[in-house]
Design a protein that fits this description.
The complex is a heterodimer of chains A (159) and B (507). With 159 residues, chain A is mainly α. Chain A is built from 6 helices and no strands. Chain A is flat, with a radius of gyration of 24 Å. The termini of chain A are far apart. By secondary structure, chain B is mostly helical. Chain B is globular. Chains A and B meet through helix 1, helix 2, helix 4, helix 5 and helix 6 of A and helix 8, helix 10, helix 19, helix 20 and helix 21 of B.
Chain lengths: 159, 507
């Protein structure tokens, strides 16, 4: 029977192997006689063991996915284009892109209410959340509420 | 111990102020709404509210989080019954019989039964919490570095095994990643910055709340916004109050599900969803009418809802006695307790002897509020269920951002949250459970410090890890959990048991 996540498991396994090798190398390079503590109490001991465990699991995932039946491991250009063309993928990309943009603008001197209000309006418009007046009202209300609760009541500085 | 009920009453009396009752009502309502809306989970709700209540006094903040936790686990049943979509993973089993009941025109009684069985489950769980936490706390006093190290590994392995039942390897991978994530930054013995790569921000490590909000909140926001299908709500609701005979008729199911919920809750990191499924499965096996399960069985609905809510009390038992969370929302609750200066663990009964009774009293208020609000605000809650996701999700995102930022006032935490959201989304899509990752982030420091401390105490000798009695038990269970998933081991067990049977029959 074809396994649903054969391809995903293969690439995840490879990424885990690379990541865990990086962890092992980094752990090995950590000091082994820090502040007079013996080598077995060094900062890289547990991270090294975890890296080793993750490497074994990454290898198991990779080998298992190669052995299993399912989708071919290679990704063709057509498949990639079809995935990128899906409505869901585009919605995901759009939401993530707008959210990253919002986070990038935070803490750069632009007033918080402007960044947050703007983000809410843009996302709701792009995803057709409702009529324009409703979007403006909800965005403004949310921004005022967040600013009031965090900044005025809890005295937390806003990003 | 015998004075326990009296102490609970005293703590309950102390909590009965108008302001506290207002907090209880509002936060339980918020919890119900969070749990009810598909895409917002109990873990995310508690994580989000941890940021929001950071400025509150510790007692009020923990009370609010407990109310949100109880409300959210219950609230998920509402969308499970009316939409056939579990509001939280804990309510997936509720869909099986809740929605068929709603389709038969019995949405009201189904809501009533779900509410009362959730209440019974929560009360059963909190009674167990009050009774077993001091007992487990006494055993936990025997734990030393060797045992704490194995407890962390045991938690990850068991949690990975149970939250990814079809592919435990993925659960263990998630757990190990969580352990590694927790070790980024300055370590606790010699203050050496691990995996900091020269960054001052990385030296501080990843804060727990941004990681949790990312894995649960951002991943959910992205997942919900990706979908284009809008769910349809069943809105014909008549009588909600359940019939007494229904509750009495299924008292054994409630008791069994309560016990299962508490036991599963007490296992590190497993949580309410597993409790609901196991309770449902046991109820079906024991039922006189198993053929009705999945077609609108009241018994099935009661089993699932009692089980998941009883799990809450169970999940808080190891939080208070061992500082090891029994579920993902309990992990956030533990983090919130740390943030507010409470140090749960074996010394809790010595340092804060009344804290267990205080938490139990908070749970009593939360469960009462859940019962009253759940039975009274039916139509209001249905209206909230109809709020379009494109309105709700960007607001949730803004709250996730501000909640992550508010803890340490660091822009870096916002990026941590976003990065873990980006990790959490494919994890969810490709069947990697988030709970072991969260548990790993919580337990990583415990595993690291205790492993190295134990080696220092024995001058590098590892034998106590395998010879001390409690360690040995933990090692045996951990190894058995791993080996039991291997086919060759299961085959060996079958062959071994058949040989024993054969020799016994010959003898």
């Amino acid at each position: 029977m074809a396994y649903e996540f054969r391809r995903q498991d293969f690439y995840t396994g490879v990424i885990l192997c690379v990541l865990s090798l990086g962890v092992l190398v980094e752990s090995w390079q950590m000091p082994r006689d820090l502040q007079g503590w013996p080598a077995y109490a060094g900062p890289g001991v547990v991270t090294g063991l975890l890296g080793l465990g993750l490497l074994l699991m990454g290898l198991a995932l990779t080998i298992r996915s190669v052995r299993r039946a399912g989708a071919p491991l290679g990704i063709s250009g057509g498949e990639a284009r079809a995935y990128l063309g899906e409505v869901g993928t585009r919605r995901l990309g759009l939401m993530f892109g707008l959210s990253v943009l919002y986070c990038l603008l935070l803490g750069r001197g632009i007033p918080y209410w402007l960044t947050t209000g703007g983000y809410l309006v843009v996302v709701m418009f792009v995803f057709r959340a409702g009529p324009w007046w409703q979007i403006l009202l909800i965005s403004a209300g949310t921004t005022v509420a967040v600013v009031y609760v965090f900044n005025r009541i809890f005295a937390i500085p806003l990003p | 111990m015998l004075m326990g009920p009296w102490y609970i009453l005293v703590e309950l009396w102390n909590l009965l102020t108008p302001l506290t009752l207002l907090y209880v009502a509002v936060s339980t309502f918020i919890g119900i709404v969070i749990g009810m809306l598909p895409g917002l989970t109990a873990t995310m709700g508690v994580a989000l509210l941890t940021g929001l209540t950071f400025g509150f006094p510790p007692k009020q903040a923990i009370l609010i989080l407990i109310c949100v936790y109880v409300g959210a686990i219950y609230g998920g049943s509402r969308s499970a019954i009316l939409l056939n979509i579990p509001g939280t993973p804990a309510n997936a089993a509720t869909c099986l019989d809740g929605f068929p009941l709603a389709q038969k025109g019995e949405a009201g009684p189904a809501i009533g039964l779900a509410t009362t069985s959730s209440f019974v489950g929560t009360v059963f769980g909190l009674l167990c919490l009050a009774f077993f936490t001091p007992l487990l706390g006494k055993i936990a006093l025997e734990f030393q570095s060797w045992e704490f190290f194995w407890l962390a590994i045991f938690g990850i392995v068991v949690c990975g095994n149970l939250t990814a039942p079809t592919d435990p390897l993925k659960g263990w991978i998630a757990g190990f990643i969580g352990l590694l994530v927790s070790l980024v930054g300055q370590e606790n013995i010699a203050a050496y910055p691990r995996f900091a790569f020269g960054s001052d921000q990385m030296r501080g490590g990843f804060a727990l709340i941004p990681v949790l909000v990312g894995v649960y909140g951002i991943a959910e926001v992205l997942g919900v916004m990706r979908e284009t299908v809008v769910p349809r709500v069943v809105i014909q609701i008549q009588k909600v109050l359940p019939r007494w005979q229904d509750l009495w008729q299924y008292r054994r199911t409630m008791l069994r599900s309560g016990v299962i919920g508490v036991i599963i809750g007490a296992i590190p990191g497993v949580g309410e969803d597993v409790a609901a499924w196991v309770s449902y499965d046991f109820a079906k096996r024991a039922s006189k009418k198993p053929e009705e399960f999945g077609k609108g069985s009241r018994e099935g609905l009661i089993a699932a809802e009692t089980g998941n809510n009883a799990c809450i009390g169970g999940a808080v038992i190891p939080v208070l006695s061992l500082a090891v969370p029994g579920s993902a929302p309990a992990a956030v609750l533990l983090a919130a307790m740390w943030l507010h200066g409470v140090r749960p663990g074996p010394l809790l009964m010595i340092e804060f002897p009344n804290y267990i009774w205080e938490v139990t009293a908070m749970f009593i208020l939360a469960s009462l509020a859940m019962l009253i609000l759940g039975l009274s605000l039916v139509r209001t809650l249905v209206k909230i269920l109809m709020v379009p996701r494109p309105i709700l999700m960007p607001i949730v995102f803004v709250l996730c951002v501000i909640g992550s930022f508010a803890i340490s006032v660091r822009i870096f935490d916002i990026w941590v949250m976003l990065a873990f959201g980006l990790l959490g989304y494919p994890m969810r899509k490709y069947n990697y459970p988030a709970a072991p990752l969260v548990l790993g982030v919580i337990l990583g420091d415990m595993a690291d410090v205790n492993f190295r401390r134990a080696l220092i105490r024995t001058a590098g000798d590892v034998t106590p890890f395998f010879t001390r009695p409690i360690s040995l038990v933990l090692v045996a269970i951990t190894l058995f959990t791993i080996l039991a998933r291997a086919q060759w081991f299961r085959r060996m067990l079958v062959v071994g048991s058949s040989r024993v049977k054969a020799s016994l029959s010959r003898g």
